[in-house]
């Protein structure tokens, strides 16, 4: 595990984000997934975020990304969902036929922290502090 740093901190912050298409509609193919990834990569530097891994199924995308302590994750996710929804519906108008309303993404999302150590390892490390 290689730690990253900025002026005031050292960190290792990785997240797994799952975004689901509204109503689980089956609209994501390779071309659309690639465009969604391009949009993600364009917006993410503004929030000190970088994509590590990207993949998709027909109704959702899975994203592994790195962030920094000053990254505003909820603001980034909302900005990304808004921009990508607008652009995808504009560039691929056939998608509108499969969605009932204006939205491309479901309102909810799944965001999971990831790391190199298990929770048990971290608990043991914290509990052992101050011991000789």
Could you describe the 3D structure shown?
Helix content is 32%, strand content 29%. The protein is α+β, with helices and mostly antiparallel strands and 132 residues long. It has a single domain, classed as 2-Layer Sandwich (Alpha-Beta Plaits), CATH 3.30.70. The strands form 2 sheets. A 4-stranded antiparallel β-sheet has the order 4-5-3-6, with helices on one face. It has a two-stranded antiparallel ribbon with strand order 1-2. A hairpin with a 4-residue loop joins β1 and β2. α1 crosses α2. The protein starts with a strand and ends in a 5-residue tail after the last helix. InterPro entries: Transposase_17, Transposase_17_sf. One of its GO terms (biological process) is DNA transposition. GO terms for molecular function: DNA binding; transposase activity.
Note the main attributes of this structure:
132 residues; Alpha-Beta Plaits; 4-stranded antiparallel sheet; two-stranded antiparallel ribbon; 6 strands; elongated
Task: Describe the structure in brief.
Pfam families: Y1_Tnp. One of its GO terms (molecular function) is DNA binding. The protein has 132 residues and is of the alpha+beta class.
